[in-house]
Amino acid sequence: MIRHLHYSFGMRNGTRILFTSLIIIFGLILNTFSLAHSVEFGQDATGDPNVIEVEGSSGFLYSDRIVFTAAHVVMGVDGTTLEESNKRIAYWEQEGFVYSPGIGNRAGQKRYRVKKVLVNPTYMPRSESDRTRKNDFAILILQESIPMKNQVVVASESDIAAFIKDKNPVYMVGYGLQNPSQRTPPQFGTLSPRKMTSYLVSHEELKDYYMNNSQRVMPNQTILDYGVPNSEKLGSVCDGDSGAGFFVEKGSTRYYLGPVGGQQAGIPNCQSASWATFGIGGGMSGITATYKFLTLIKEAESLVADDKQKEVKKAEEAKIAAALKKTTITCLKGKLVKKVTAVRPVCPKGYKKK
Questions:
Q1: What is the structure's pLDDT at 17?
Q2: What is the set of domains in the chain, with CATH numbers?
Q3: Going by C-beta distance under 8 Å and a sequence separation of 6 or more, which residues neighbour residue 20?
Q4: DSSP-assigned letter for residue 235
């Protein structure tokens, strides 16, 4: 789950000109979009074909048996010990499950059991000196298939460059909180999904945002690959949206960019406290591009292919066994009775099957 970042560090020198430029740039870009309120401030997204609720957080259905999410969703939030993380993963592989994508009320809905969890081996949680989660990516492999309604591909580096250049809308659908009232009592895992519509900014623009909001971040904060602006008009992520996927949609294909959770700054996070306000130019979600984790994805795809091959073989063996199963028939010849047992039993000459 996302924790709101609020620190009181002094503003760096020499940022006023950059700040003014950034506001102008954000204003121009915002005006190029048909704005949709979402997640906090929200647009309902019930029925979305990819958003998956992951035990109070979120995930993204990549293929019929593969769900993308954030590493901290399955391993535990910052401060979780290695032993605790291992227990959480063991729980997911023994008892964990998800539901079909896009559903609201989970009562009576089919559960899809999790068979295997793959966590990006280079994942690093937040630390006291760096509040960025690095390489925050994990995969849930399911025991059975969830029917896919669309095609999903991992956006390449060239895809992402084109999305930034063309200012393509970037979407995110998550199961996070939608306003402060849902914190008391906590409503994690009970809500319908909500959607935000934003756009993608480059690493340099993400750095500019952090420079202009230095009072909200740590001096040595790691800056991730790309940024997705948050605002009241665009929508803003909240606790519970961790693991949801940012994506660009073209026709029936969704280009997956990366999960929510690596880096957040200047967002209210569905809090009502006085400090829960947007930063200069709005809020910002920093993401690590998932194309960097193709090796892990290919491992997951290979495991799924092996599972399906074993299932086909098992089904064929069961079919053969059924075909070879012996049965017994009763044959009559006058008052004589004879029982015949075979794979395909046939009555002897002169006898008739009872």
A1: 39
A2: 16-304 (2.40.10.10)
A3: none
A4: B
